[in-house]
Amino acid sequence: MDARKKPITPKAAAVLRSVQKDEQYSSWMKNETNLIFQKILGPRLWIQWKQQIDFVSDFIYYSATTLNGVQTLGEEYVRIVQIEGDQLRVPSFRVSNNDSNWSHC
After folding, report:
1. How far apart are CA 68 and CA 33, in angstroms?
2. Better pLDDT: 83 or 12
3. 101 lies in a domain?
4. Among 14, 29, 31, 44, which is disulfide-ready with 78 (CB 3.0 to 4.6 Å)?
């Protein structure tokens, strides 16, 4: 008997709610960031840089969650966890001490 647990695939509705919640938080973050930059840069420069500000805002949101190896707020809201293949671990770009290939001199 296989002792490993098989991952449960979330229903489409849960994934959809997760994405909607992430979009809600991402939109809020973009709006707040744009308000700050509009006050700092003024309307003319802010309009020129708006696309870049939106991109950086989204990048920060998803870097702080998915790339950092934790759930996004939407995933947490509906209690789903991304896993990496069949290894039953959360995908991450972190390098642990055990996985390190560095040699100490």
Report:
1. 21
2. 12
3. no
4. 14
Q: Is residue 6 part of a domain?
A: no
- Residues 4 and 93: their CA atoms lie apart, in Å, by 24
Query: Whose structure tokens read 């959809």?
Result: 16
CA distances from 94 to 37, 70, 73 (A): 31, 11, 20
Residue 5 domain flag: no
- Residue 22 is assigned to a structural domain of this protein: yes
Which residue range forms the structural domain that includes residue 29? 12-78
Q: Any idea what DSSP says for residue 5?
A: P
Count structural domains, the chain. Answer: 1
Q: Which residues neighbour 50 within 8 Å (Cβ) at sequence distance 6 or greater? A: 34
Q: How many residues does the chain have?
A: 105
